[in-house]
Amino acid sequence: MDGFTVYILSCRFNREVGGKKEDRSLEAVFDWFINHGGKDLIDKIGEVKDHAQLFFVVKKPIASLYIDDRGFQFKGEFPSLKDIENFCPWNKR
Questions:
Q1: Closest alpha carbon to 58 in 1, 93, 14, 2
Q2: What is the 3-state secondary structure (H, E, C) of the chain?
Q3: One digit per residue, pLDDT tens: the chain, 93 residues?
């Protein structure tokens, strides 16, 4: 990660269930990250600092690259309805 600042954003961070904000969603994603090899990558969680490398955020920042498990890369043409209907995220294949 040298030279990069990485932001982790999940729609789960702002999710409401039954009219109540889910307080544990950020913690659950963080725990998953730690348990799947992310512990060594963490420098600082919270506000951006000059030395920071990794942040968990609730708003999508401007970036050079986005990695998303449920997105199409836009190359000037929108996906067809068939492409959308047949889309399958990596964890459902």
A1: 14
A2: CCCCCEEEECHHHHCEECCEECCCHHHHHHHHHHHHHHHHHCCCCCCCCCCCCEEEECCCCCCCCCCCCCCCCCCCCCCCHHHHHHCCCHHHC
A3: 556 778 888 877 766 667 776 666 778 888 888 888 777 666 444 444 455 567 788 888 888 888 888 888 888 999 899 998 998 888 888
Instruction: Using only the alpha carbons of the chain, give its radius of gyration.
Output: 16
Q: Indicate the pTM of the whole model.
A: 0.60
Beta bridge partners of 16: 21
Please give the torsion angle defined by the CA atoms of residues 23, 90, 1 and 30, in that order, rounded to the nearest 10 degrees.
Answer: 20
Q: Of 7, 5, 4, 2, which Cα lies nearest the Cα of 56?
A: 7
The number of residues in the chain equals 93
How far, in Å, CA of 84 to CA of 88, rounded? 9
Cβ contact 13:24 at 8 Å: no
